[in-house]
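Narrative of activities, Objective 1.

The group set out to show that a structural description can be obtained from nothing but a protein's sequence at a throughput compatible with the screening campaign. Below is one input-output pair from the validation batch, recorded exactly as produced.
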Amino acid sequence: GNLYAVNDGSHTINVYPTEGGAPGIIADVNDGVIAGGAIALSPGDDLYYSPNTYNRIYRFSSDGGGGLFDQLPQGQAIYSLATTEDGTLFTITNVGIYRYVNGESDRRELFSTFEGRQGISTLAMSPDGQTLFSTFGPALFAIDPTTGAFSQIGSIPFENEYLPGPGLAVYVPEPSAACV
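Output recorded for this entry:
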């Protein structure tokens, strides 16, 4: 697949073809790209974007069409996005995780809350779609994408009393690679 990146300087979302060549622009400031932010690609090649700490999510097709997907209530801030193979979108906010079943904006539901946990959070879906991973401050959690059940699986060490910044990448080796 292609590589997608939000360019905070030019307020664009760029697509970089894997076969090489010049990058293209699939959205710009006129489409709602007002700042850096979270992006997630759906299995149908729709790209979701949310400006950092805003309450809006945009959806763009790979050819550049699209616009506002959903707007959360005032005072809610979106930090990260993730999708599943069936197109379900997850977004983590300052009040919890919302789930949009099958990527439909009218099927938004508050999927999981995290009272007592703090820190800017990120989301990442495992390649097999069986686990949603998230950080809350220095803690790393595995979340069941069906039930919303949390389990802490680790902690990120940090020094000087500063919490690590947002960011999470998930790598799960192919089963055959684990046996090599």
